[in-house]
Design brief:
By secondary structure, the protein is mainly alpha-helical. It contains five helices and no strands.
Length: 97
């Protein structure tokens, strides 16, 4: 599982550099309301979802595209972590392909 700080840093960097509809006036914190604060618009949200799916090899289901799952970087991090295997023990329970 990616480290908390690394995941937050990568999400923040991507949002600020690639998705933001405007340059933030101050550093973006993990609890900054990225949608309500006007940093991410609807097109940016779908770019962000594609980034998350590609970078972390997870699938975001249509029913998971909810405001509360993408309101802040911390909420996105929680969604990603919930979809990732729990660690070595989770891998041991997976059947070989």
């Amino acid at each position: 599982m990616p480290e908390h700080a690394d995941l937050v840093a990568r999400l923040t960097e991507y949002i600020v550099d690639e998705v933001a509809s405007r340059r933030p006036e101050a550093p973006v914190t993990p609890d900054f309301p990225i949608i309500e604060g006007g940093l991410v618009d609807s097109l940016g949200l779908f770019k962000l979802i594609a980034f998350v799916e590609e970078q972390y090899s997870v699938s975001i289901l249509p029913e998971e595209i909810l405001f509360e799952n993408f309101a802040t970087i911390n909420e996105i991090k929680r969604l990603i972590e919930a979809k990732l295997p729990a660690g070595p023990a989770a891998n041991a329970t997976q059947k070989p392909r």
